[in-house]
TrEMBL record:
Glycosyltransferase among keywords: no
Record keywords, A-Z: Signal
Protein name: Glycoside hydrolase family 38 N-terminal domain-containing protein
Signal peptide (residue range): 1-25
Pfam family, one: Glyco_hydro_38N
GO biological-process terms attached to the record: mannose metabolic process
Molecular function, one GO term: alpha-mannosidase activity
Residue ranges occupied by any Glycoside hydrolase family 38 N-terminal domain in the UniProt entry: 40-128
Domain of life: Eukaryota
């Protein structure tokens, strides 16, 4: 007779596999108004990569030295831009201007134009956090 824990583990594995196979993409109505009789939940997709907190700026940016923390800001920005372009209902807030500045200067003029369109459409927003208030990147200076 199998042990009770083995049965639970087998059931958990089956349930996980079933959910992974049967889950389909659901299109949400993101234009709905607030309903006073319902709990209204707002999710804000945003970045939070402290510049130089546990790793050097370079390590955070390129995703090296993951024994300390798994983070690759370059990949985050690449995937966010791609995701926003694929779905106009998506929005993202990026907060670390030191990383964005480095990423921006590495991009082609075509990608820069695409990012400007995302900003103009309100899909990509920037937020300054306290540590960024004193570090204005060259791409934003006049």
């Amino acid at each position: 007779m199998p042990k009770p824990m083995a049965i639970v583990s087998e059931f958990s594995a089956f349930l996980l596999l079933y959910l992974c196979v049967t889950v389909v993409s659901v299109k949400y109505n993101t234009g709905a108004s607030v309903l006073p009789t319902k709990l209204n939940v707002h999710l804000v997709a945003h970045s939070h990569d402290d510049v130089g907190w546990l790793k050097t700026i370079d390590q955070y940016y390129v995703g090296s030295n993951n024994s300390i923390q798994g983070a690759c800001v370059e990949n985050v920005l690449d995937s966010v831009v791609n995701s926003l372009q694929r779905d106009q209902n998506r929005k993202f807030v990026f907060a670390e201007m030191a990383f964005f500045d480095r990423w921006w200067v590495e991009q082609s003029p075509e990608t820069q134009a695409q990012v400007r369109k995302l900003v103009d459409a309100g899909q990509l927003e920037f937020m300054y956090v306290l540590c960024d208030l004193f570090c204005i990147p060259p791409c934003l200076s006049v």
